Amino acid sequence: MALLTLPVVIVSVEEAIRTIPRDMREASLALGATKWQTIRKVVLPGSISGILTGTILAVSRGAGEVAPILFTGAVYFSSHLPHSLSDQFMSLGYHIYIMSTQSSNVDATQPIQFATTLVLLLLTFSLNAIAVILRYRIRKRAK
Predict the structure, then answer these.
(1) Number of folded domains that form the chain
(2) Domain range spanning residue 95?
(3) Cβ neighbours of residue 132 closer than 8 Å, sequence gap 6 or more
(4) pTM
(5) Is the predicted pLDDT of residue 78 greater than 70, yes or no?
(6) Which of 37, 57, 82, 92 has its CA 20 to 30 A from that of 20?
(7) What is the mean pLDDT of residues 99-109?
(8) Alpha helices per DSSP H over the chain
(9) What count of other Cβ atoms lies within 10 Å of the Cβ of residue 79?
């Protein structure tokens, strides 16, 4: 999932870094700062909100993706936690997919589908809320 969401993060980070005026970078370098100091003290603080926005988008996209998980080792039920990268794993999105398409009695499994969807939405919204609050605090501190 990290590889799937990586392009979203890269594009948003690149755009956030481009919003920092070139004059500010050149001024920092002209005042004697090294390239690393310029990145740490000028570029990153100015672009952190864009970087966090990209992270929010990536988490939201990753939470809703089911197709890549289907091909990488997801199972409907597993009695143990995965211990290595090659172990099979359970996923909420895949669970919803199986319950809605492969169940012998879809009407009987609807409450489980709704509960699983609610859990997935709550996790996604919680992660997004944390990222938004963090972004707000960083912006507030930067002013």
Answers:
(1) 1
(2) 2-142
(3) 56
(4) 0.63
(5) yes
(6) 57
(7) 82
(8) 2-18, 22-30, 35-38, 44-64, 67-70, 92-101, 106-142
(9) 4
Burial class of residue 112 in the structure, from the number of CB atoms within 10 Å of its CB (0-12 exposed, 13-18 middle, 19+ buried): middle
Q: Determine the straight-line distance between the first and last CA of the chain, rounded to whole angstroms.
A: 35
User: CA-CA distance, 22 to 124, in Å (whole number)?
Assistant: 36
The pLDDT > 70 percentage for the chain reads: 94
Show the tokens assigned to 28.
């920092």
21 phi and psi angles, rounded to 5 deg = -60, 140
Q: Which of 54, 58, 119 is nearest to 91 (CA)?
A: 119
Q: Which two tokens stand for residue 100?
A: 């809605």
Residue keyed to tokens 């997935």:
120
Closest CA to 98 of 125, 60, 69: 69
Tokens read off for 143? 């002013």
Tokens of 113: 């589908």
Radius of gyration of the CA atoms of the chain, in A: 21
| AA identity, residue 5 | T
* Residue length of the chain: 143
Pairwise CA distance, residues 113 & 21, whole Å: 49
